[in-house]
Amino acid sequence: MASIEEGGGGGHKKGPGVKKAKKLSTHLDMTPMVDLGFLLITFFIFTTTMSSPTTMELFMPKDTDKDDEQNKAKESGALTIMLSKDNHIYYYEGQLNENASNFKQGSFSLKQTIRPEGDTIKSIRQVIIDKKKAVIDAHQHDAGCEKIWAKNGGDKTSCLDKDLVIVIKPGELATYKNTVDILDEMTITNIKRYAMVDLFPAEKALIEATEGK
Amino acid sequence: MPSVKIPRKSTSVDMTPFVDVAFLILTFFIMATKFKPEEPVEIKTPNSVSTKELPESDALQVTFDSTGRVFFSVLSEKDPKVKYNVIKHMNDTRNLGLTEAEMQNFVKAPAIGVPFTGLKQLLGVPAEDHKNVKQPGIPLDTLGGELYYWIRDAVATFSGKQLKYLIKGDNEAKYPAFKQVLNAFKKNEIFKFQMITMLEDAPAGSELAIIRNRQKSEGK
Question: Which of B50, B170, B202 has its CB closest to that of A54?
């Protein structure tokens, strides 16, 4: 701005009576423009949805009436997780005992809590991790392993947890959030075989008895 | 002693850099903004660690809210004609008696949550006002109810195109609502779904986090 100087030191003199053009300021008042700019920014900040939704895949099996068509799971590798109201979660390993001694309560929170009765409520993630470890430790090599290796590009660790099956049984009072959360746990702990089925009447009765209905 | 003259400073500040930054931010927000599609009910979706992106076209979406009301919508951002074909097909097979204008209104409507008997009345209302109409939800039973027909006819209209099936549920919805929606899909021989969730990080130290870190370092 300073460099643009009209009419140098005295190259050509203007005659008397020739008025010098009025120098206009190059400064603009930008305040209204800034006002408008920030107004728009505020508008876009409020309307924008930053986190875009993602999707989680779910495969359901076809319903079959025939018992022999259903995949039989090895009892040693089965873990059944049941969901109920108020974020309650129960689990048992293998088959449910006659006296329900292996029926335990878990929790979605990551901390362990100790109930006044003296038993501990484990976090369900820890339960899954422990079960997976137990299955891997008890793993014995058999003929089926070669197929699994071939499927996973020769990865020999891929066969170790092949007996592990998690059965998810949401009760009628379980929320959708809990259902998605537990399916998410399967992804988090990298469980390859899991299924979502309905509660058996015996299990339902057991949960109702526990919750004191 | 002559007093020291303090040079008077101008009070006007050069705002140019300020304006530059403001407009830079503005440009960013304009570019990054994607408007929320209008929906008749507000749904709070659960979180998951899944990173798969949401499709915009060639998808059917079933929404259920906390009280178990079910809504159906066809997503076809690229080709609005498809949506028209769906309602035309529905109109012909179910004898809904819709007029041309009502069918055009369906194309603009975000989601439908009324029984077949109430469809004509709902589509008589302009699509922009649908959010003010109390919709009772599509009737469902253990065999799929009317939702079964919606899905069947929509799939038939797309004829052979690879469709995606989206399920959007509210945190507080109960499991039976979800199960009935699944049943409606299952009855149509559809067994692969995508549930709409919000992204959250894989918990540190978990097996998934370890796998993802490994993939990241291998990719570099």
Answer: B50
